[in-house]
Every structure is written in structure tokens, then in C-alpha cells.
Write a structure and sequence with these properties.
The protein is of the alpha/beta class. The protein has 16 helices and eleven strands. InterPro entries: AAA+_ATPase (IPR003593), ATPase_AAA-3 (IPR011703), CbbQ/NirQ/NorQ/GpvN (IPR050764), ChlI/MoxR_AAA_lid (IPR041628), P-loop_NTPase (IPR027417).
Length: 341
């Protein structure tokens, strides 16, 4: 938690500081505080926390995939508080309409009898939107988020309505209950910078969770970042240097995952389609964010390897023959990572 009287000049000058190294060091310290604060209520999911923070620091969106009860909703609520963001939650259901997300115009009449349309903002007008069980809504409703996620605005009645800044979507998806769901189209999946898979906590983490959440006191969190600091951090991240070897590793990984450019015949036969340029852009940003979270000022090839699965797994599809032979995307990505050396 940041005390109200604490001085933090280096962090306040992100992007304009004469000493970018000092600003980056200040950001690394603050990110450590963010991780510790989140860890007081989220147990046994440090990799998940880091991947979601990576997506947000990179200025992108994340798709959280996991069974019920793993803390996806609590994680999003906690992030909103700790990062100092306004947050809203939308429960996606089959009867949800696009206007329920973006908002709509209503006809109003004033005291003089004059009528005019007024736009009522929907829940998408927030800084951190939780799209809960996004695959339960119809494709028409899912598409309402496409423009918002890419352009940070929505078009209503021919007028563009800008969204708050920063704007991030954290969507959840339940992989177990597939009845009554609509798979996300490839165009929307590609707009998620990372797909974050949640697994069950280990024994020690689950024990700590039980002791912390079933007593009379409920754990809570406090804001760590102040208004505007997240955007400043995102601007600083884009200014961090990245080595040619890391750029080459990103291109090797992404181009090797496409059936058109893969240099392995078995890979070409196994893939129906592969990642586009957004995957390479995501890796360029996410490797920088991961380095900062780890206390480093420059990313390495190890960062590329660690982020290969969350960046690629929702941007690739197996061919029919590969599925029939029992090939998995995870195994294919592992093979691509091994080629990085």
C-alpha cells in the first residue's frame, strides 16, 4: 500500500523523466508492491497473477480460462482496486443484447416539450471490464466487444463514443460446462493479448486459503497505484530496449507456428491456421512486462519461451488429421519453444 505522504518523484515522471533508469527502478519496486498486495487475497496463483499483470502492463486484454471456484472474479475485482482502476462486471448470458454492454439512446422530453435523444452509457464505459463467462453470450453480443477491444471506442447511432483510458477487458471462460455456449470467433480471440489458464492450487495454498477466508475477518486489499500511474507505466514499458536476439526469437516462434511459413512438414500438416502479426506484437510487449515484473530492465529469450503458451494457444488451431492422431497444441508449442535454444 502507498502511504498518502510518500514521495515518489521518479514514478510520477514516467515517460518524461530525465533518468529513465531511475523511473524503471521505481516502477519495478511498485510492481513488487502490487504483486504482494494481490497475494494477500489470491492464494497459489502467482503465475496467473503475473500473466494478467503482464497483459495489463502491455496495454492489452486477457482471457481467463478455468473451472468454477478458482478465483477468477475475485482476481479481477482485486486488480481493479490495487491498480486504482474503475471496474465493472457483466455476466454474459444467452439473452444478453449488444446494447446491454455498449449502451443505447433514449428519447427524452424536457419541460418545454422538446424531444431529443440522449445516450446512456453501458457497462463497457469503464477502465477494467470483467466479461464473466463470455462464451455464454450469442456471437452477436460477443461482437459488441470487438470494436471496443481494438479501437477503445464504440459506435452508437453513427456516433463514436470514446471509452475511458486505460481500457482493459478481462474475460472469463469455463472450459467444463460447454452446453449452451458459443465458441469465441478467431477474430475476437486474437484481440486477447494473453490466454491465461487457471489450475487448482497446491495443498499449501489451499490450506492458507481455507484459514484466511473462513474466519470472522475477511482479507481485503488497498490501492497501490494512483490515478494515471498505470498509463505512465505502460508508456515507460514501450520505451524499454529489446535486443535483436529476442526479436529474432519472437519472429522464429511466431512464423514457425504458421502452416504457410513453418519449416517442418509435420508442423504444416498439423496446423489448420496459425498466429498473425498481433501475436508477434503481443510477445514484444509482454516480454518487456515480464522482465519488469522479474526486476529486470531488458527481456531475454527465456521471457519469450515463458510467454509462448499464453500468447499462442488461442491463436492456433489443429488440423482434423492432427486431432485424429491425438496431437495437442501444447505439445506443438513446446516443440517450437525447444527450437529457440
Amino acid at each position: 500500500m502507498v502511504e498518502s505522504g510518500e514521495s515518489r518523484p521518479a514514478l510520477d515522471r514516467f515517460g518524461t523523466s530525465a533518468d529513465p533508469v531511475a523511473a524503471a527502478d521505481a516502477l519495478i519496486d511498485r510492481l513488487g508492491a502490487v504483486r504482494r498486495e494481490i497475494g494477500t487475497v489470491i492464494f497459489g496463483q502467482q503465475t496467473v497473477i503475473d500473466e494478467v499483470l503482464t497483459a495489463i502492463l502491455s496495454g492489452g486484454h486477457a482471457l481467463l480460462v478455468g473451472a468454477p471456484g478458482l478465483g477468477k472474479t475475485l482476481l479481477v475485482e482485486t486488480l481493479g482496486t490495487v491498480l486504482g482502476l474503475g471496474a465493472r462486471r457483466v455476466q454474459f448470458t444467452p439473452d444478453l443484447m449488444p446494447a446491454d454492454i455498449t449502451g443505447s439512446e433514449i428519447l427524452e422530453e424536457d419541460a418545454s416539450g422538446r424531444r431529443a435523444f440522449r445516450f446512456i452509457q453501458g457497462p463497457v464505459f469503464t477502465q477494467l471490464l470483467m466479461a464473466d463467462e463470455i462464451n455464454r453470450a450469442s456471437p452477436r453480443t460477443q461482437s459488441a466487444l470487438l470494436q471496443a477491444m481494438q479501437e477503445h471506442k464504440v459506435a452508437v447511432a453513427g456516433t463514436d463514443q470514446p471509452l475511458p483510458s486505460p481500457f482493459h477487458v478481462l474475460a472469463t471462460q469455463n472450459p467444463i460446462e460447454q452446453e449452451g455456449t458459443y465458441p469465441l470467433p478467431e477474430a475476437q480471440l486474437d484481440r486477447f493479448l494473453l490466454q491465461v489458464d487457471l489450475s487448482y492450487p497446491d495443498l499449501a495454498a489451499e490450506r492458507a486459503m481455507l484459514l484466511a477466508t473462513t474466519g470472522t475477518a475477511r482479507p481485503g486489499v488497498e490501492p497501490v497505484l494512483a490515478l494515471g500511474e498505470l498509463e505512465a507505466a505502460q508508456a515507460l514499458l514501450r520505451a524499454l530496449p529489446i535486443g535483436e536476439s529476442v526479436v529474432d526469437a519472437i519472429l522464429t516462434l511466431v512464423r514457425g507456428a504458421r502452416p504457410d511459413t513453418a519449416d517442418d512438414d509435420s508442423l504444416r500438416r498439423s496446423l489448420a491456421w496459425g498466429p498473425g502479426p498481433r501475436a508477434a506484437q503481443a510477445l514484444m510487449l509482454a516480454t518487456r512486462a515480464r522482465a519488469l515484473l522479474d526486476g529486470r530492465l531488458s527481456p531475454s529469450i527465456d521471457d519469450v519461451a515463458a510467454l509462448a503458451h499464453p500468447v499462442l494457444r488461442h491463436r492456433m488451431a489443429l488440423s482434423f488429421s492432427a486431432r485424429a492422431e491425438g496431437v495437442t497444441l501444447s505439445a506443438l508449442i513446446d516443440g517450437l519453444v525447444r527450437r529457440l535454444g
